Amino acid sequence: xxxxxxxxxxxxxxxxxxxxxxxxxxxxxxxxxxxxxxxxxxxxxxxxxxxxxxxxxxxxxxxxxxxxxxxxxxxxxxxxxxxxxxxxxxxxxxxxxxxxxxxxxxxxxxxxxxxxxxxxxxxxxxxxxxxxxxxxxxxxxxxxxxxxxxxxxxxxxxxxxxxxxxxxxxxxxxxxxxxxxxxxxxxxxxxxxxxxxxxxxxxxxxxxxxxxxxxxxxxxxxxxxxxxxxxxxxxxxxxxxxxxxxxxxxxxxxxxxxxxxxxxxxxxxxxxxxxxxxxxxxxxxxxxxxxxxxxxxxxxxxxxxxxxxxxxxxxxxxxxxxxxxxxxxxxxxxxxxxxxxxxxxxxxxxxxxxx
Length: 355
Fold this sequence. Notes:
The chain is α/β, with parallel strands linked by helices. 19% of the residues lie in helices and 32% in strands.
C-alpha cells in the first residue's frame, strides 16, 4: 500500500496564524500535526507516501524534506487549486498507480494510530474502499454515513435529519476503482470534486465500501478551539521526560516534559504540559494543558490551557493568560508608557479577550 496525505488547504479558520504558516505545521504538544500523520502512516507499515501540497508547498517541503527522518520516502504532488479532496486523488494518480492506498487529511489527530485499520483493509482484498467513521453528538455538522448489513449505503453532507450519528473523519482506504469514480463525478455547488460524491458513486456501482468505526478520540484541528482540544488530548498521552534544566527553587510535577536545552528557573509547572527546547521559564507559572514551543521566553507571567509557538516572549504580564493560542514571534509585555493603557498590534482576524 501507499499513503496519500492532503496538505494543501489554506486553513482560513485558523487565521491569523495561517496567514504566515501552513496549518498542517502548527504543533500539537510541540509536534506539527503533519508529522503526526506521517508517523501514523509509517507505523502502519507504509513507507511510500505522497504529500499533496498547494500554496504553502515550499514551507512544507522545507519542514518535511525527503522523509528520511521517519525512514519513509516522500513524493510531493502539487495541486494548483484547492478543488476538492476527490480532485487531489485525481492529481495523485501517477504517484498511486494501481496500488491500494490510505488517504489521510493532514489536519486530523486520531487516537491510537491507523495500524489496525490498515491491517483490516489488507486482509480483505474484496473491499474496494474502507472509510473511517466516528460517533458525534451533532452529526448534522458533518458528512454522515448510513449503514446497512455492515456496509455504507449512503453518504449525506450536513443533513438536517441525520440517518445516524456516524460521521466521516477524513481517513479513507481505496483501491484503483476510486479513479473511475473521480472521473465520473462532477463538481459540487462549491465548485469542488467531493470525496463523498466519489464514494457514493462506488456504492451506486455496486463496489464494496466498508465502514471502520473508530472508538477513540478524534479531532479536526481546523479551528482554534479544536486545536487546543487536540493539544490537551495528546498531552495526556505523552510519557513525561525531563531533559532540560530545572533549578532547585522550581516545582515541576510528574506530568511535565521539559525538552533539551530548556530552563525552568524559580517557577511552577503543572502538567500535563510540555516545555520546548531552548525555552526559558523564569519566575512564572505554567498551568495544566499547556504546550510551549521552542525558543520562547516566559518571565514574571502566568498561563494555563494555552499553546505558545516559537520565538515568542511573554514578560511581566499582570494577569493570567488562559485558553489562548499564541503564534510565533509574538511579544506580550507590560508597557511602561504613561498613562496606563492597553497597547496592541493585531493582525487580521485576531481575537482578544480583556478583563
